[in-house]
Amino acid sequence: MSGGSTPIRLLLADDQALVRGALAALLSLEEDLTVVAEVGRGDEVVPEARRSAPDVALLDVEMPGLDGIAATSALRAALPTCRVLVVTTFGRPGYLRRAMEAGASGFVVKDTPARQLADAVRRVHAGLRVVDPTLAAETLAAGVSPLTERETEVLRTARGGGSAADLARALHLSEGTVRNHLSAAIGKTGARNRADAIRVAEQNGWLLGE
Amino acid sequence: MSGGSTPIRLLLADDQALVRGALAALLSLEEDLTVVAEVGRGDEVVPEARRSAPDVALLDVEMPGLDGIAATSALRAALPTCRVLVVTTFGRPGYLRRAMEAGASGFVVKDTPARQLADAVRRVHAGLRVVDPTLAAETLAAGVSPLTERETEVLRTARGGGSAADLARALHLSEGTVRNHLSAAIGKTGARNRADAIRVAEQNGWLLGE
DNA sequence: CGGCTGCCCTGACAAATGTCACGGTCGGAG
DNA sequence: CTCCGACCGTGACATTTGTCAGGGCAGCCG
């Protein structure tokens, strides 16, 4: 199954040190895999990758410094030969789409059995694509974001919890305009509240780009 | 440091299979530790513990079926000799307090370096208490919940996102009363919104007891 | 060009949310 | 017993939020 030649070099990126170390232990059990680098922040991925030249990078989505998706783009641009496998905590439908668009070769949720991870790494290294089938179905169902640019921006700013007047000031808009965008977003997401709309949009990954 | 006699028997409970397996791999590297059981739901902890008789149980807080805190109580009641080490994703200040009240011997966040985990397990097994010092400080700062029982209940129900009228119907109260409790909670949490108050209360672990 | 669509912006209006003052009950302290 | 404080419950009131109709501006197609 795995040649006895040079092992696959791995970079791990996860903000939770315990999980990172545990994954390293798990993957190191495989003879054809070797962990050459570990980082805890998204903005450390590219510098560390330049130094250690991994074959495959395992990136978490939720990370400080830089989004896992953004880190994927940056890494693909900096080291095109390095494949990316995104390993995320919870399978927000839109994350998969964004990750693939950013150049990831695989997408795995942390619910999957541990034994499958090594196989996923090998498949990605071989140039194949790896996706959770059920998650892929959900992604197709969720579709692309129906929100317009302004609506997304307003909703994103509204996460902070300020009042409509605050948002208006922050975005240099009239208070009524802000409320109108919010209303449109509420309608499109099928929510009842502003808070509800934020939840739905976040769950679908429609608020990503920082 | 560790005697060559019988190893410490461990039970792992975490809803993310990948993390669970990775932790098992990490801990199995230690000669004096052995993982005898793994479960993915809170309500499977006690039955599985009865069967496998572990010395120490590592429980995540966020789990389906039964809260990690509640699982701690249940496990302490069922097998008093089994120590509990709570290993949680994010260190909500109030979680620590609740976990200790429920009978946990230790509380570790997943940000801690992987090498310390095995030591934490050994300390817990030896009858010592293990807590993250910075988290302990935060917990004291956050203090006990200032919310009254009704306020907590209303806030907890409000998480679903319904309108005040919905809450009133669900709780058999007047709509005005619901708004009043909400208002009190908003004041006590220092929030501006209902949504804000929910966030703050959740972050401090004041909404736990299901 | 004229018509059309889609997005952005805005103010007026209705509905919800948050605040306030008040009354009732229970338990402990003086 | 009486007072006092804490909690619960309620309605009236001001503020905020969500909805609606409509105007302005770009791009696209006939």
Question: What labels would you give this structure?
Answer:
homodimer; alpha/beta; Rossmann fold; Arc Repressor Mutant, subunit A; 6 strands; DNA-binding
Q: What this model shows, in words?
A:
- The structure is a homodimer of 210-residue chains.
- Helices cover 50% and strands 14% of the residues of chain A.
- Chain A contains 10 helices and 6 strands, in the order E-H-E-H-E-H-E-H-E-H-E-H-H-H-H-H.
- The A-B interface holds A 15-26, 29, 87, 89, 108-115, 117, 161-163, 191-196, 199 and B 15-26, 29, 87, 89, 108-115, 117, 161-163, 191-196, 199.
- Chain A binds a DNA duplex (30 and 30 nucleotides) through residues 148-150, 163-165, 173-177, 179-183, 186-187, 193-194.
- Chains A, B: InterPro entries: CheY-like_superfamily, Sig_transdc_resp-reg_C-effctor, Sig_transdc_resp-reg_receiver, Tscrpt_reg_LuxR_C, WalR-like.
- Chains A, B: One of its GO terms (biological process) is phosphorelay signal transduction system.
- Secondary structure: number of strands of chain A: 6
Oligomeric state of shown chains:
homodimer
Which whole number gives the mean pLDDT of chain A? 89
Helix proportion of residues of chain A, in percent?
A: 40-55%
The end-to-end distance of chain A, rounded to whole angstroms, is 41 Å
Q: What is the CATH third-level topology name of the largest domain in chain A?
A: Rossmann fold
Q: What share of the residues of chain A does DSSP label as strand, in percent?
A: 5-15%
Counted by DSSP, the helix tally of chain A is: 10
Widest β-sheet, arrangement of strands of chain A: 2-1-3-4-5-6
Q: Number of folding domains of chain A?
A: 2
**Radius of gyration of chain A, in angstroms, nearest whole number:** 19 Å
Order of helices and strands of chain A: EHEHEHEHEHEHHHHH
CATH C-level class of the largest domain in chain A is Alpha Beta
Instruction: Considering residues with a beta carbon less than 8 A from a beta carbon on another chain, report the largest interface and each chain's count.
Output: A-B, 34 and 34 residues
Domain Response regulatory (chains A, B): 9-125
Keywords (chains A, B): DNA-binding, Phosphoprotein
Domain HTH luxR-type (chains A, B): 140-205
Pfam families (chains A, B): GerE (PF00196), Response_reg (PF00072)
